[in-house]
């Protein structure tokens, strides 16, 4: 399990896009009338438990399934591993030099792909014909689970806090390479460095391990013409505030059950189109974007084929089956109405696909309500853009209770990663106000080992304060979701044992 030391994202600030959790105003956008022929309805897989339940009794608002594209998982993996969907990178000829200089660390190669590149980098040819190496989706969407790299697991160790100064350093070195490179390669290097330095001030997370993907999307949208996707050095709409609302990277294996992408249910319509918004970093024309889009039905198919990892009893210790079945009874009585039920196989699972109002779940509301981020302009940008032709963003003032498959492997918890263990999620009295990751993983409390800090950011002067998770910062609150509090200690213990089995 990921230990105490946070990993710097190096060149890997890729992007996600489309992740605007903020904005309470309705965007007023619905799915376009003419659904493209390429969209096949594969969303209704029978895991929909809401249809027969009286809507009045639901703890949240149902999210309807919408038509989705099919695809081929193997081709999807090939795209993820070597596709040009981010659109830029460092010229491949520089890689050996950067590698020798230790820029890329010693992360393992991508399982299932030939070659020595670390898993989070891909080699591809840009629109201008230059062979480059750039970040891929596994920058954020591959993580260590019980000592193994698992594709689709979240990486919650990335430290974006020092990103702006790293990029400034990188920019400073670029000019030195002008004489070394062919003009076309040099132009690509400059383009990559410029994009990274444009976004850098917007991705400086206050706490290492939290992800700035939402702000990243906002600043990239601001610099692009929604119609042509052309990049403009000056923003065309007002950029987002530079204060980053933190998000915890979700595991990708949930997507097979989810009708909406993202914590605040913002991602609607054609999910494959939304998944390709990493292209907002460097894909600068509709033609290029359309070509990438053709490959993303396959990417979605790969994501939908992912299975959550099983609790490895050999390394993490045996599951007490009797206790777990007592926990299952507690779960069915207390939790299932929001999080669904879990059978022996996917086909036996049910999942209600709801979003729950922030006033009901009472977890930190900044992301859902966009307290400081007037995100409506970014939602509008998306919906009026190439991306909005088959998909749309419609963030809700609340959060989706996620499917809990493999939940044990995804600490920290809640949308902002403010709660280090499942034990603390189920008993709010155990949640630390200021905490620091310690090395190792806690198989008892299920999650990150941590030490409590007596002081928060206001009282720490060094830049290392970003290694303290301060739950009093905007968007970092650890309150709410008190559903475990009324249970007895014995019930919570049983419930924890049950959660290991999911
Ligand atoms: C910079 C880190 C980063 C990169 C790179 C990235 N993502 Fe994400 N992704 C995130 C974060 C953070 C979220 C959650 C955002 C939210 O819900 O507000 C997310 C959400 C998602 C979701 C929705 C999951 C859910 O449960 O709702 C999918 C699917 C997804 N990403 C796929 C991809 C794909 C495919 C790529 C590459 C083409 C990619 N991401 C690249 C950080 C990243
Ligand atoms: C009324 C609906 C509701 C009930 C009941 C409920 N939850 Fe949740 N749960 C949510 C919502 C909404 C979230 C997302 C909150 C957020 O991220 O801010 C959530 C988040 C979680 C998470 C964190 C997921 C993650 O990836 O970080 C876990 C674990 C969880 N719930 C377990 C439980 C358990 C166990 C119970 C029963 C004791 C329970 N929940 C009862 C709505 C509910």
**Bound ligands, each once:** heme C
N-C termini distance? 18 Å
Sheet with most strands: strand arrangement: 1-8-10
Strand content: 5-15%
Please write the string of helix (H) and strand (E) elements: EHEHEEHEEHHHEHHHHHEHHHEEHEEEH
The secondary structure category is alpha+beta
Q: Helix tally?
A: 16
Q: What are the low-pLDDT stretches, counting only 5+ consecutive residues below 50?
A: 1-5, 10-53
What is the CA-atom radius of gyration, in angstroms?
A: 22 Å
What this model shows, in words?
- It is a single chain.
- With 502 residues, this protein is α+β, with helices and mostly antiparallel strands.
- The protein has two domains: 63-308 and 369-397, no CATH class; 313-365 and 399-499, no CATH class.
- Helices cover 27% and strands 10% of the residues.
- It contains 16 helices and 13 strands.
- The strands form five sheets. A three-stranded antiparallel β-sheet has the order 1-8-10. A three-stranded antiparallel β-sheet has the order 2-4-3.
- A hairpin with a 2-residue loop joins strand 5 (142-145) and strand 6 (148-151).
- Helix 4 (163-174) packs antiparallel against helix 5.
- The longest helix has 19 residues, at 286-304.
- It starts with 60 loop residues before the first strand and ends with a helix.
- Mean pLDDT is 88; it is low at 1-5 and 10-53.
- Bound molecules: heme C (2 copies).
Brief digest:
This protein has 502 residues and is an alpha+beta fold.
Descriptors for this entry?
three-stranded antiparallel β-sheet; alpha+beta; 27% helix; 16 helices; 2 domains; disordered N terminus; 502 residues; binds heme C; 13 strands
